[in-house]
Design goal:
The structure holds 3 protein chains of 3 kinds.
Chain A lengths: L1 H46 L3 E2 L7 E2 L3 H7 L2 H31 L7 H13 L2 H11 L7 H8 L15 H26 L3 H9 L4 H12 L1 H16 L3 H7 L13 H11 L3 H31 L1
Antiparallel strand pairs in A: 1-2
Chain B lengths: L1 H36 L3 H4 L14 H9 L2 H32 L5 H12 L3 H14 L6 H9 L2 H12 L3 H9 L4 H12 L1 H17 L2 H6 L8 H7 L8 H21 L16
Helix pairs in contact in B: 1-14, 3-14, 4-7, 4-8, 4-11, 4-13, 5-8, 8-11
Chain C lengths: L1 H24 L3 H33 L4 E7 L8 H11 L3 E7 L5 H9 L8 E4 L2 H10 L6 H7 L9 H4 L9 E13 H7 L10 H10 L10 E4 L5 H4 L19 H12 L6 H7 L3 H6 L3 E7 L1 H12 L8 E4 L11 E10 L7 H12 L1 H9 L9 H8 L8 H5 L5 E4 L7 H16 L5 H17 L1
Chain lengths: 307, 278, 460
C-alpha cells in the first residue's frame, strides 16, 4: 500500500518534471536573453542604490545613505509627489478614453481603418510636432485659442498653462492623455476581437440593452486586457520623462520643482551629477511603488480567475 | 419600427460627428509636420503659424538626403527593426504560451520578475549594461541593439494576456487528442492570436524604428547609425534645422503607417471560438 | 569571444563583490578576502592591455603609423574639424585622426558613459562645457596635463587667464582651443528706420536700456522689439558678474537684482518678448533675430558664423544688415568686459596613445591651431590682434570698424567657472531664473531662494 503510493508519487513527480521541462523550453529563448542582458544589469543597478559610484572610481558601500539623501532633497520629494499625482489622474482617464475609442472604432461603420490610423497618430508622430501644436492651443499668451475661449465663453482669467507652476501638471496630464490614448486603444481593439459575437447575440435575445451588454459581456471579457493596460499604463506613467521634458523643460533643459518627475530626477542624478548610487536609490523607490501596485493587480486577477 | 430606424440613423450621425471631431484633433500635428517640413527653420516656430507656406521649400526633401547619409541610416534602421520584430515575435509568443497555459514551478515568480523589470527606467541600468556589453565586444555593433530590444519583457506580458483570454478548454481538448504542447502552440494558439500578434508587431516596429537613446549610446561609427540619430544630427550645438527634421520625420512615418494599415485586416472580430467557453 | 565572456563575467562579479564585499567587510573577514582575490584577478587581466598600450605609446615617438580617435560632435556642420586635422597631418604624415561624432544634444551623457570603466579607446575627447568637464574630472577619467605642459613649455598666459578658471586643485585637465565671447548683435535697418544712432562699443546698462526702448514699437501686428533675451539664465543673471567682484558660484546673488529688474520692466512694457511665451513656443534665438523685428540681442559670438552662413544661403532675408558691439557694462567697469565659454580638448586616462594625443592637443590649442580656427571664422582660445584681423576680414562679416573692434575684450569671465558643484548650482539658479521671468516669484524672494539653495549645495 505504502509502496503503491510512493510509486504513484514518483510517477506524478516524473510527469510534473516533464511538464516543467516543456514549460522551461518555451520560456528559454526569451528568458536567457532577457536574464543575461536585462535582468542582470537591473539587479546590479538596484544593488547600486546602497553604494556610491560614479561609473569609474571604485564603488563604495554606503548602506542607506543614498536613501537618506534623496529623501532630504526637495527635488526628489517634489518629483515623487508630481509623479504620483500625474499617475493617479493619467491612468484612469487614459484607460477610459482608450476603451471608449476602441469600442467606437469597433463598430461596423465605414472608414474604421482611417479613423484607427488617425487615432494612433499622435503616439507615433514626432513629439516636437505634437508639442508644438499643443503649445499653439495652450499658449500662455492671451491671444491663444484656449485662453480666448476661457475669457470669452467662460469669462475666466487666461491661464499660463505649461509656463506656470500651478497649471503645469494639469497641462502635462491633458497632453499625455491626448498623445497616448491611441496606443492603448490598439491594445483594447485587439482585445475586443477576442469576444465572440455569439455572446452579444445571446444577450440581445434575452433583451439586454447596450449598457447591460457592455457591463456584463464586454467588461468581464476584457479583464486580461484591462489588467495589461492598467499595469503598463501605471508603469509608463511612473516612467514619464520625455513629455515633461518637452513641455516644461526650458531651453537650458532644466525642469522645475513644479513639474519634475522621478525619471527626470534619475537622469539628472545619473548623467549631470554622475551619482549613480542616488539615481539607483530613486529608481528603487519607483520600483517599489510600481511593484506594490502590480501585486495588488495580480491579486485582483487571481480572484477573477478563481471565480 | 420607424422610430427605431430613425434612432439608428441619429446614432450613426453622432458616432460620425464624434469621430470626425476626434480625427481633426489627432491630425493637426500631422498637418503641422507637413507644413513645417516645407519651411525654412527660422519660420517653423514663429507665431502666428503659417499653415500653408507662401513659398513652400520642397528643397528640404532633397537636402535631407545630401546633408546626412539618410539612405544608409534608413537601411540600418530597417534591418534592425525587421530582425528585432521577428525575434521579439517568436520568443515572446513562445514564452507567453508557457506563462498562460502551462503549470510549472516558479511560474508566478518568473512572470512577476518579467513584469517588474519593465518598471525600472533604462537610465538606471544603462551604464552597467553598456560596460557589460563592451566587455563582450559588442559596443558599436548592431548586434548590441538587437540584443537590447529583442528580449523585452513587454512582448511576453502582452502575449500572455491575450492567451489568457483564449479558453483553457481548447488546449485541454487538444491534449486529450494527443497533441504535444508545441503543436498546440503552433496549430491552435498562434492562429487564434492574430490580433495580438499584429499588436505586438506594431508596437515592436514602432519602438525599434523610433529608438534613439540605445543606438546613440552604442553606435559610434557613422555608417552604423540609425534614422533617429540622423534626425538629431540636424540639431547642432548652435542651431536646429527643424524644417529638415520635419521633412525626414514625415518620410520616416511612412513605413510605420504601412505596417499599421496592412495589419488592420487581422483586427476582425469573432475568430476566437468564444462559444466553447459557454 | 569565450575569453571575453569570461572577463566580462569577472568584471561583473567584481562589481557585485565590491558592493557585497564592502558591506560584509566589517563583520566577516573571509568575505572581504575573496573580494580582494577577485579584484586582483581582474586587475591581472587589465595590465595585459596596459602593456600593449605602453608598447604603442613608445612606438608613437618614432614615425610608426598611429591612429588617434577623437570624440566630438556635429561633424557635418562644424567647419573647423577637417582643416585642423589636415593642418596637423600635413606635418605628421604618420598620424591618422578618426573623428567619432557623439551628437551635440546628449554629448556629455554619451561621453560620460563611453568613458565609464576603463574600456574606452578614445585618445582625444572634446569637452563641451564646464559642468561636463568637472564631472569627468571627478570621475577621474581625464589625464592631468600639468607635467606635459611644464615639460613642453606651453605658455598658459596666452589663454588670457581662462585656464586658471578651469584649474581644479592645482591640476589642469584640458586645453581650450575655441573660445566664444558674448557681444551685442543689432539690426542696423531697424535703427536706420527709427532714426536712432547705432549702439556703441562703450555703453552702460542704463544707456543700453534707453536705446532699446527708443526703437521699440508696440503696435499690435507690427511689433518691433528693442531687445531680445533668450530663455537661458546667462542672458540676464550673468550680466552682473562682469564687474569682476562676483562669481556665479559664490553663494550670494544679490548682484543680479538690477538686471532682473531692468529686463522685467522691459518685458512688461513690451520692449522684449514675453519669457513664458518664448519658453513654451520654443523659439530659437536665431529665428527670433531673423524675423527682422528684433533690434538688439545679447548672444555669444558663435552666432556670427550662423548669421553669415544663413544670409549667404538666402534663408535670412530680414536681418542682412547687422552689426555687433561690445557687451554693455556696469558703471565704472571697463568696456570690453564680457562672458565667455570655452571648448577644450582632454586626454582620457584610458587613451591608448597618450603621447601622440598630447602632441595633437598641443597643436590644436596652440598658435598654429588658432590660425586655422580663425581662418574658418571661429574665435580660438589663444587670441590676439592678428587673429581678430583674420576673423573680421571674413566674407560676410560687418564692414564697420565698430564690429571689428567689438571682438577685442578687456576681461573675460567664464559663464560657469570650474567648481565641484557646478551642475547642482546650475539647477538651483535655473529654477529661480524661470520663476522670476514667469513673474511667479518676486525678484527678492527668488534671490533669497538662490542664496539659500546654493549655500546648501556648497555646504554638502
Amino acid at each position: 500500500m505504502a509502496a503503491g503510493i510512493t510509486a504513484m508519487e514518483k510517477n506524478m513527480k516524473r510527469r510534473q518534471r516533464k511538464r516543467n521541462l516543456v514549460a522551461y523550453s518555451f520560456i528559454a529563448p526569451n528568458f536567457i536573453g532577457f536574464a543575461v542582458f536585462t535582468l542582470g544589469p537591473i539587479v546590479l543597478a538596484l544593488l547600486m542604490s546602497f553604494a556610491e559610484w560614479d561609473g569609474s572610481n571604485a564603488m563604495k558601500f554606503v548602506g542607506l545613505d543614498n536613501f537618506v539623501q534623496i529623501f532630504s532633497d526637495d527635488r526628489f520629494t517634489s518629483a515623487l509627489k508630481n509623479t504620483i499625482v500625474y499617475s493617479i489622474f493619467t491612468v484612469p482617464i487614459t484607460l477610459i478614453m482608450a476603451l471608449g475609442l476602441a469600442i467606437l472604432l469597433n463598430q461596423k461603420i465605414k472608414g474604421t481603418n482611417f479613423f484607427r490610423t488617425v487615432a494612433f497618430f499622435p503616439y507615433v508622430a514626432s513629439l516636437v510636432a505634437v508639442a508644438a501644436v499643443w503649445n499653439m492651443l495652450f499658449t500662455p499668451a492671451k491671444g491663444g485659442i484656449v485662453n480666448q475661449l476661457l475669457m470669452n465663453v467662460f469669462h475666466a482669467q487666461p491661464l499660463k498653462w505649461a509656463a506656470s507652476s500651478s497649471t503645469v501638471m494639469l497641462t502635462i496630464i491633458m497632453f499625455s492623455v491626448w498623445k497616448n490614448m491611441g496606443y492603448y486603444m490598439v491594445i483594447y481593439l485587439a482585445g475586443l476581437q477576442g469576444i465572440s459575437e455569439d455572446l452579444y447575440e445571446a444577450a440581445s435575445l434575452d433583451g439586454a440593452n447596450a449598457w447591460q451588454k457592455f457591463r456584463h459581456i464586454t467588461v468581464p471579457q476584457l479583464k486580461p486586457t484591462t489588467f495589461f493596460v492598467t499595469i503598463m499604463l501605471t508603469i509608463n506613467c511612473f516612467k514619464v520623462y520625455d513629455i515633461v521634458y518637452m513641455l516644461a523643460g526650458g531651453s537650458n533643459g532644466v525642469v522645475n520643482k513644479s513639474a519634475i518627475v522621478l525619471v527626470y530626477y534619475i537622469y539628472e542624478e545619473a548623467f549631470r551629477n554622475w551619482k549613480l548610487g542616488r539615481a539607483s536609490a530613486s529608481a528603487l523607490v519607483l520600483f517599489a511603488i510600481v511593484l506594490a501596485v502590480t501585486l495588488i493587480q495580480f491579486k485582483g486577477e487571481k480572484n477573477y480567475a478563481n471565480d | 419600427m420607424k422610430s427605431k430606424k430613425n434612432n439608428r440613423i441619429i446614432g450613426q450621425i453622432i458616432v460620425y460627428a464624434l469621430l470626425i471631431l476626434l480625427a481633426m484633433m489627432m491630425l493637426v500635428p500631422f498637418l503641422w509636420m507637413i507644413s513645417a517640413s516645407l519651411k525654412f527653420n527660422k519660420d517653423v516656430f514663429v507665431i502666428p503659424f503659417e499653415w500653408i507656406p507662401k513659398a513652400p521649400r520642397w528643397q528640404n526633401y532633397i537636402d535631407i538626403w545630401t546633408k546626412i547619409p539618410l539612405a544608409k541610416f534608413t537601411l540600418n534602421t530597417a534591418k534592425l527593426t525587421v530582425i528585432v520584430t521577428l525575434l521579439q515575435l517568436f520568443t515572446s509568443s513562445f514564452a507567453a504560451y508557457a506563462f498562460a497555459k502551462l503549470e510549472f514551478k516558479g511560474r508566478n515568480i518568473l512572470f512577476l520578475a518579467y513584469v517588474a523589470t519593465i518598471a525600472v527606467p533604462w537610465q538606471v541600468y544603462m551604464v552597467p549594461q553598456f560596460m557589460f556589453m563592451r566587455n563582450l565586444g559588442l559596443a558599436d555593433t548592431h548586434l548590441a541593439i538587437i540584443i537590447l530590444q529583442a528580449f523585452s519583457a513587454f512582448g511576453v506580458f502582452l502575449m500572455r494576456q491575450f492567451y489568457e483570454g483564449i479558453p483553457d478548454s481548447l488546449c485541454e481538448a487538444a491534449r486529450i487528442d494527443g497533441m504535444s504542447e508545441y503543436e498546440i502552440y503552433a496549430k491552435i494558439m498562434l492562429p487564434l492570436s492574430k490580433p495580438a500578434l499584429s499588436t505586438l508587431i506594431i508596437f515592436t516596429f514602432v519602438n525599434t524604428w523610433n529608438d534613439f537613446l540605445g543606438p546613440l549610446i552604442y553606435l559610434t561609427t557613422e555608417s552604423k547609425k540609425t534614422l533617429q540619430i540622423g534626425l538629431k544630427m540636424f540639431i547642432s550645438q548652435y542651431s536646429a534645422e527643424y524644417g529638415l527634421i520635419m521633412a525626414a520625420s514625415v518620410l520616416s512615418l511612412i513605413p510605420v503607417f504601412i505596417v499599421f494599415i496592412s495589419l488592420q485586416k487581422y483586427f476582425v472580430a469573432g475568430i476566437t471560438a468564444g462559444s466553447v467557453k459557454g | 569571444m569565450k575569453k571575453r565572456i569570461l572577463s566580462s563575467l569577472l568584471a561583473m562579479t567584481m562589481v557585485v563583490a565590491s558592493i557585497t564585499g564592502c558591506g560584509a567587510a566589517a563583520e566577516q573577514a573571509p568575505a572581504a578576502d575573496t573580494t580582494a582575490q577577485t579584484e586582483t584577478k581582474t586587475e591581472e587581466a587589465a595590465p595585459a592591455d596596459n602593456t600593449q598600450a605602453a608598447a604603442e605609446t613608445t612606438e608613437t615617438a618614432s614615425d610608426e603609423p598611429v591612429t588617434l580617435k577623437w570624440a566630438l560632435w556635429d561633424v557635418s556642420s562644424t567647419v573647423y574639424y577637417q582643416p585642423l586635422i589636415d593642418a596637423y597631418t600635413a606635418a605628421h604624415p604618420n598620424v591618422t585622426i578618426e573623428m567619432v561624432d557623439l551628437g551635440s544634444t546628449d554629448y556629455s551623457t554619451v561621453l560620460g558613459t563611453q568613458l565609464s570603466g576603463a574600456g574606452s579607446d578614445f585618445d582625444v575627447v572634446t569637452i563641451k562645457d564646464v559642468p561636463g568637464y568637472v564631472s569627468l574630472v571627478n570621475k577621474g577619467v581625464l589625464e592631468p596635463l600639468n607635467d606635459r605642459i611644464a615639460a613642453d613649455g606651453v605658455d598658459l598666459s596666452l589663454y588670457n587667464g581662462v585656464t586658471d578658471q578651469v584649474t581644479i586643485d592645482g591640476s589642469l585637465y584640458e586645453l581650450p582651443f575655441r573660445s566664444d565671447i558674448w557681444v551685442l548683435f543689432y539690426n542696423k535697418d531697424i535703427f536706420d528706420k527709427a532714426g536712432v544712432d547705432y549702439p556703441t562699443n562703450d555703453m552702460t546698462w542704463e544707456e543700453y536700456d534707453k536705446l532699446a526702448r527708443s526703437v521699440t514699437d508696440t503696435t499690435p501686428g507690427a511689433e518691433v522689439y528693442g531687445s531680445h533675451y533668450h530663455t537661458w539664465r546667462s542672458t540676464i543673471q550673468l550680466d552682473g558678474i562682469l564687474d569682476g567682484k562676483h562669481t556665479i558660484v559664490d553663494g550670494n546673488y544679490d548682484f543680479t537684482k538690477p538686471y532682473y529688474e531692468m529686463v522685467l520692466a522691459q518685458q512688461k512694457d513690451g520692449v522684449c518678448m514675453d519669457y513664458a511665451t518664448l519658453k513654451t513656443q520654443g523659439l530659437h534665438y536665431s529665428a527670433a533675430f531673423a524675423q527682422g523685428n528684433v533690434a538688439t540681442m545679447n548672444m555669444g559670438s558663435w552666432f556670427i558664423a550662423t548669421l553669415i552662413q544663413k544670409i549667404k544661403d538666402g534663408e535670412y532675408t530680414d536681418c542682412t544688415n547687422w552689426g555687433i558691439v561690445k557687451y554693455p557694462h556696469a558703471d565704472g567697469v571697463e568696456a570690453g568686459s564680457t562672458l565667455s565659454t570655452i571648448t577644450a580638448l582632454s586626454i582620457p586616462t584610458s587613451a591608448p596613445n597618450k603621447d601622440a594625443a598630447w602632441d595633437f592637443v598641443k597643436f590644436v590649442s596652440g598658435a598654429e591651431g588658432a590660425e586655422v580656427m580663425a581662418s574658418t571664422g571661429n574665435i580660438p582660445a589663444m587670441t590676439n590682434k592678428t587673429i581678430v584681423d583674420i576673423i573680421a576680414s571674413m566674407d560676410g562679416f560687418p564692414t564697420d570698424d565698430a564690429s571689428k573692434e567689438a571682438l577685442i575684450t578687456s576681461h573675460t569671465y567664464l559663464e560657469m567657472p570650474a567648481n565641484d558643484k557646478s551642475s547642482e548650482i546650475e539647477t538651483v539658479l535655473n529654477e529661480q531664473h524661470d520663476l522670476i521671468m514667469n513673474e511667479e516669484v518676486s525678484v527678492d524672494d527668488a534671490i533669497a531662494a538662490m542664496n539659500e539653495g546654493v549655500q546648501a549645495v556648497l555646504a554638502q
